[in-house]
Amino acid sequence: MDKILKIIVLVFLSLFIQLTVAFSLEEKIKIGLLVPLTGDNKEIGQQIIKSTRVALKDINSRNIEIIPRDTNSNSEQAIKSAIELKNLGVKIIIGPVFYESLNNLNEVDDVIFVSFTNKNVNLPKNVISAGVNATSQLNTIKKFIEKNEIKKTIFLTPKLDYEVEIKSAIKNSKIKISKHYIYDTEPTKLTAQIEKITNYKIRKQNLLDEIKRVENSDLADKDKQLEKLEKRYTIGNVKFDSVIISDFDESLKSVITSLLYTDVSPKKKFFITFNQWFDESLLKEKTIQPIYYPSINRKNLKNFEKKFYKEFNEMPNYLSLLSYDLIGLVYYLSLNNDFKDVEKLFKKENSFKGKIGVFDIKNNKINHRLNFYQVENGNLKEIF
Asked: Is the pLDDT of residue 98 over 60?
């Protein structure tokens, strides 16, 4: 009996040792992190690192290792740090943060970069954009337009560096627009362009002509009609039902102000814009409301902010939320795919639910399923 017991114990110990050795030899998932740790944007990098710590805590796995390196917000340092990470056996890198840091990263073979940028045009072949890109936003706007049976939509884009990106997104999303205008952000030129787009001078002249006609008439209610006309700014309609403005901050408000000046009201036409990241200043500008835009899931954002503040006693930036999700995304892909073949990780059609929302992955592209919001009467409302 003692001999049998000894054999059982020895077998058990042998199995235990083998399992322990196997576990200890199991290759860790190494994820590189390219962020600015020095220079003007070092605070952004520090917040991203803190966010990855929160993600690791929530994932609670010993088999994942994050290795951060500095980009100093420039392409030369980015590629130097990327090569260093590759030499450490890293096959997938989250970052860089800025589009300008992506130059020449295609020289780093057998490594995939999941960048924070929201630009998709002219990326190196081994860089995947994970930011909230224009295509994702237009996919959501398209859904809103179709649900509300909006027939004619015009598109306004500022003459800035993302003009090509917008044109590509319009094509990719297959959104139907009647006209795409590129406008100058200089206020005087902008107003003149909006006047032309809205046929303001013709509509203004229509009003003046009608006032003159009534004044010279023998109508019994002439005074009453003149009183009504004097309260108007123009006569005649514009040739669109909704306007999409791909602009932000004060520049966005300037465009809307010009539309108001030309007697185009958001109460009569749909004013739609791009992701405003819940800009609270829009809530105060009641004259430009209602206004609509796609964005990430606000409830999830608020929950993440509470968690981050509890951990670090500071509020996170939006890139922090994205970095939290990207750690989870890469870990999810590693569990469901052969992590050694990184070239195929983002090619297969896949979906991942994160804090931002749902990531749709296909053919080395990431798009987001966004929510849609309305700002009206000083309040923010989720439409879908």
From this structure: yes
Helix, coil or strand: residue 61: coil
Cis, peptide link before residue 96, omega less than 30° from 0? yes
Residues 211 and 226 sit within 8 Å (Cβ to Cβ): yes
Sheet hosting strand 291-295, strand order edge to edge = 179-183, 153-158, 242-245, 270-273, 291-295, 371-376, 379-382
Q: State the architecture of 135-295+372-382 in CATH terms.
A: 3-Layer(aba) Sandwich (3.40)
Nearest one of 380, 372, 339 to 139, comparing CA atoms = 372
Give 382's strand partners: 373
| Residue 332 burial (CB count, 10 A) | 17
**Which range has the worst mean pLDDT, 19-23, 97-101, 108-112, 336-340?**
19-23
CATH number for the segment(s) 27-131+299-368: 3.40.50.2300
| Average pLDDT for 228-234 | 94
- Residue written as token pair 């102000």: 257
Determine the distance from the C-alpha atom of residue 72 to the mean position of all C-alpha atoms in its chain, rounded to a whole number: 23
Per-residue HEC secondary structure of 264-308 comes to CCCCCCEEEECCCCCCCHHHHCHHHCCEEEEECCHHHHHHHHHHH
